[in-house]
Structure formats: C-alpha cells, structure tokens
From TrEMBL:
Species in which this protein is naturally found: Colletotrichum incanum
GO molecular function (one): oxidoreductase activity
Keyword Cell inner membrane in annotation: no
Protein's UniProt name: Short-chain dehydrogenase reductase family
Keywords on record: Oxidoreductase
Oxidoreductase listed as a keyword: yes
Any Pfam family: adh_short
Coiled coil stretches, renumbered: none
Domain of life: Eukaryota
Length: 111
C-alpha cells in the first residue's frame, strides 16, 4: 500500500501518468511526501502539462519530474533505464499504468 508512512522520502515512477488513473496516482504520491515522482510519458511536452496541473492542484513544486519513456521502443526503455540507474539510486515503487494499442501492429526500427 502506498501510504504516507511508506512513501515519505521515496522515489516513485508512474507510467501513463499524463491523464486518468496514472495522473491521479502521481498526484497522490506528490501529496504524501514522496521526494521524487517520475512522470514517465512518451511525449515530454504533454507530461510537462500534467506536471503543471499536479503542482497547481497540490501546491507542491520540485517533486514531480517528467522523463521520456516509450514502452514500445527498446531504445527508449534502455535510455530511461540508464538515466534511472545513474540519477535515482533506489526506486521505491513503480506504478505501471501505460497502455498499449493491440489493434495496431507494427515493427519498430529498434525492435
């Protein structure tokens, strides 16, 4: 359970956090004393809008960060993982909320 007691001072990653449940999860984590909430999104500019909305709603700045992550791209996953390894140290929770469109089939350049 992600409570104030378990989240205070922690680092959390939330995928699919631009809207809906992921957005609400990221906002909640900001309010319970988490040190860092990584808003992991495909489009950084849209993630920045979500971050601004979270900061406006909570009045808490400097906690949410927007990082690019496309779970359909091996290159993006690798870059995100390398950045997380070098910048985050410990990850206390990973909230997987990203969606996939299984109605569209494609082969990506990177696999």
């Amino acid at each position: 359970m992600l409570t104030k007691e378990t989240c205070t001072g922690g680092t959390h990653i939330v995928t699919g956090s631009r809207t809906g449940i992921g957005f609400e999860a990221a906002k909640y984590l900001v309010t319970v004393g988490t040190s860092r909430v990584i808003i992991a999104v495909i489009f950084v500019e849209k993630g920045e809008v979500a971050k601004s909305q979270i900061e406006g709603a909570t009045g808490i700045t400097g906690v949410a960060q927007v990082w690019q992550l496309d779970l359909a791209s091996i290159d993006s996953i690798k870059a995100f993982s390398e950045r997380a390894t070098s910048e985050l140290g410990t990850i206390d929770a990973y909230v997987e909320n990203a969606t996939a469109d299984f109605n569209i089939w494609s082969i990506r350049r990177d696999g």
